[in-house]
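Case study 2.
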Amino acid sequence: VEGFATGLAVHQSFPACRVIVAFDCGNMDAVAKRLAIGGLAVIAADNDYKTEERTGKNPGIEHGKAAAALIGCGIVWPTGILGTDWADMYFELMSAVKLANDNASKRETLRDDAIRKMVANEIARDIKRNMKFVPHARKIA
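Prediction:
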């Protein structure tokens, strides 16, 4: 993932998996080159669509695709949200579900832990669809 908050959001969705944070999209290639990855893997990139509207380039997706190509894994980015990363998606989904929960009848309301689990599962579904199997652990460079 690109940033720390994004890494936390992805970790909440996959608590048993290793999440590696590059801290900047420009650093994703360098981090990917140093990894030894084997098994299911995915780059959970930021969707810098606002930057793309201004400049014609989406650095989060472009650097994410380059890193995914180096590793041989899948890539995914959040869509359908106002924000740009998985932390934003987590926050926006939590807000929407909590609002719906607040407006539900007392008998139909969910506890906070059930809401967190529901949101984490939604993010996990999006990410899992794009995972690819990397056949063996190999150091890229």
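Residues 86-103 form the longest helix (18 residues).
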